[in-house]
Amino acid sequence: MGAGQSRSSNQLVVPQANAALDQLKYEVAQELGIAIPQDGYFGHMATRDTGAIGGHITRRLVQIAEQSLAGQFK
């Protein structure tokens, strides 16, 4: 598999969001001080590091959704 490819069978509901999610992944990794492999292959990374990135992404997405919903009900 090449850079940016995944074995996951999950499909995005909004395929255009893929670039934004990739950007978020790199931002979160940088904030955590975790280097993402240049070739995009995560198989050699520690599970702890990939889990930390995923967990922070999830928290950030929930926060964005909560802010969006709060703005709708004002």
Automatic annotation (TrEMBL):
Keyword rRNA processing: no
Pfam families reported in the protein's UniProt record: SASP (PF00269)
Domain of life the protein comes from: Bacteria
Keywords: DNA-binding
Known function: SASP are bound to spore DNA. They are double-stranded DNA-binding proteins that cause DNA to change to an a-like conformation. They protect the DNA backbone from chemical and enzymatic cleavage and are thus involved in dormant spore's high resistance to UV light.
Protein family membership: Belongs to the alpha/beta-type SASP family.
Record's protein name: Alpha/beta-type small acid-soluble spore protein
Taxon lineage: Bacteria, Bacillati, Bacillota, Bacilli, Bacillales
